[in-house]
Specification:
Layout: E1 25-28, E2 47-57, H1 60-64, E3 72-80, H2 81-85, E4 94-100, E5 104-106
Antiparallel strand pairs: 1-2, 1-5, 2-3, 3-4
């Protein structure tokens, strides 16, 4: 058989429907795991808006711990700079992060 020329990605089939949709307000969980996480500290505890649903992907937090792929939904979440850094921040600043579903709660 021929090998696929497609690049390897972290995309995997979803085991459940996405919990959030574009436009949903979400709060990044205020977590402080001892092990690997891709959730930036500056976003923890803050509210943003889902800008894009990226699909289901290998969950790096689980993979880094040797717990298998445990695919999770991945979202692009946009935060207002003032939400992250307070009233002195540039009011036009927007910060986007890629956040896995276990990092997020409805806001």
């Amino acid at each position: 058989g021929s090998r696929s020329s497609r690049p390897m990605t972290g995309a995997r089939p979803a085991s459940a429907s996405a919990r959030f949709k574009v436009g949903d307000r979400v709060r990044a969980k205020n977590i402080h795991p001892r092990m690997h996480t891709r959730l930036p500290r500056y976003a923890r505890g803050h509210v943003g808006v889902v800008e894009r649903v990226q699909g289901s992907h290998v969950f790096p937090d689980a993979a880094a711990r040797g717990q298998g792929e445990q695919p999770q939904w991945l979202y692009t979440v946009v935060f207002n700079g003032r939400e992250l850094w307070g009233a002195d921040a540039d009011p036009t600043l927007r910060v986007s992060i890629e956040a896995f579903e276990p990092y997020l709660d409805a806001a």
